[in-house]
Amino acid sequence: MRAKGKHAEYRLLSGLFFRLLPFQVLLLAISAVNGIVDSVYASNVIGKSAMSAIGLFGPFNHFLYAASMLFVSGTQMLYGRYLAKDRQNINGLLSVNLVVSGGLAVVSTLLMVLGAATGATRIFINTQPDLQMLNDYIYGQAIGIPALVLGQQLFSFLSLENQTKLTMAASIACLVANAVFDHIFILVLNMGTFGLGLSTSLSFLVFLGIQASFYFRGKSEWKILLHGCRWKDAGKIFTLGYPGALSRFVEMFRCLIVNGLILAYIGNDGVSSFAASNSLLAVIWAIPFGMVAVSRMLFSISIGEEDRRSLVSVFRIVMTKGMLLMGVIVALLVILAEPLTRMFYQNPADPVYHMTVMGFRLLPLCMPLSLISLHFAAYAQTAEKKVLSVVLPVMDGMLGVTLCSLILIPLMKNMNALYLSNILNGGICMLVVFFGAWIHRKKCPRTFEQFMDIPDNIGVGKKDRIDISVTKLEEVMEVSKTIISFCKEYKVDTRRGYFAGLCMEEMAGNVAEHGFTGEKKGRSADIRVVLKGDEIILRIRDNCEGFDPTSLYAKIAEGKSDDAGKNVGIKLVYSLAKDVSYQNLLGMNVLTMRI
């Protein structure tokens, strides 16, 4: 039964993982797709100087995404904890997230505009027309920064509320708006790089407006209440979120150093080729980053529920199905290197053409290794493994690539040196994970769980829990017997053990009766029984249609139920259990009972 439960949970989480993944990828791909459109217009209409402006703006982009990721990841982790225990705090969490992240976005906008207006951008490039094009691009981009940051925060919350259709509509509208505005501003109005930046800004305003309409209409479960901001959560968001943002933040400095090395040893063609390959690969990077975003949500909920096994299951999904997906994508990118290059440059005799081709052939090779290091960093962040959650993002985001580039670029004096540095960085990060687990455990890690090195204070060990799956109604009676036997084996008094089996039989039977009927396939219920202290904790997690027994019991208790003779099972459970709670987590039903 335990093995069966293990496989069923893997299937349940795998289905949830790949159901959520497209929407997280879409969020991360919006700016990347906009960047491709901008790059195509820049390279084919304005010229290579415009491509240099896009490349030189890269550090600013990394800073903005780092800041946004700090708030998204920190808020997601608090959300997971509050959802399991303190749901009343979530409105204040949402409100303080938007106030603080929006304030930072406005300050960032003002600083960027000030830097361009005062000529401070000369530290990036001091030649014309490149400098003027960079400044114009900054002016255009700055207008939409608050919409970008706030839109990403709302996207995260709407995903948690299972509003996938709305987030999809907002994302598609954003992409269409950018393409339309690019055509008008560049081809019709000839607005140059300012038009490129402005089109992106306006598309982000569309993105934000569509999502915000859901809250203005009052349809959301969680409300934006400025007077209810939980200001103490601002510090918690930063403390929990900064390791997740650290990699993106230090990438800003990596970009500055690498751009300087390219200009010094290779020239403007190197910056233009790197900008071209990166603009398209940024869309592909949305896939591993999207996996990380989904995993972080599932990690947070698993830790909130003190569920050790789900932590491992999520990691296994990424290392199997996720890694297979990335392998196929990398192979396609390598094969299609030249056709992809011709999106930006058409002359094979131009040095920038060959540099870009090699970028598409070599840079994708670092993605599988990065997928692993990104997930270890996200896991370390949510599990509050403080050393690894800081060391790994800094190594992956800056030190590995920068140190290799400082050696290889002056030595090789071509763009292949930078591409190889990115690949070597993945190997260095794997060594950090390996030796980190070895040092902490004081022995060489040999199994997957040993590499994860899950803290002892998360959940209970295998001997104190039992995991069962139910896929049809006939299995429910067997579940009750298994729970009673499990409690008896661990010296739980007979009466409480019988109550535990009876409660689970009633609730699991309700899920099976109403959730496993009809034409829908792949429905299952993952059942967990945990012995913790003097409590028996029963949990049912299923992917069936939503049903909240706590709301139904509240109506029964208030005398609002139509038939007093119905719902005998729910009444029985409430008479036996000392606590019953229901949550819908990312589209899954989770019912917890404590005996």
How would you describe this structure to a colleague?
The two termini are 22 Å apart. Strands 1-2-3-5-4 form a five-stranded antiparallel beta sheet, sandwiched between helices. The chain is built from 21 helices and five strands. The chain is elongated, with a radius of gyration of 26 Å. The protein has helices spanning 2-46, 48-56, 58-85, 90-118, 130-142, 145-160, 164-188, 192-216, 232-265, 268-304, 308-335, 337-341, 351-362, 367-382, 386-412, 415-441, 448-452, 476-489, 494-515, 549-557, 568-576; strands at 465-470, 525-532, 535-542, 579-585, 588-594. It folds into two domains: 2-449, no CATH class; 462-594, 2-Layer Sandwich (Heat Shock Protein 90). By secondary structure, the chain is of the alpha+beta class.
What does the secondary structure layout of this molecule look like, with pairings?
Blueprint: H1 2-46, H2 48-56, H3 58-85, H4 90-118, H5 130-142, H6 145-160, H7 164-188, H8 192-216, H9 232-265, H10 268-304, H11 308-335, H12 337-341, H13 351-362, H14 367-382, H15 386-412, H16 415-441, H17 448-452, E1 465-470, H18 476-489, H19 494-515, E2 525-532, E3 535-542, H20 549-557, H21 568-576, E4 579-585, E5 588-594
Antiparallel strand pairs: 1-2, 2-3, 3-5, 4-5
Helix pairs in contact: 1-2, 1-6, 1-7, 1-8, 1-10, 1-11, 2-5, 2-10, 3-4, 3-6, 3-9, 3-10, 4-5, 4-6, 5-8, 6-8, 7-8, 9-14, 9-15, 10-11, 10-13, 10-14, 11-14, 13-16, 14-15, 14-16, 15-16, 18-19, 19-21
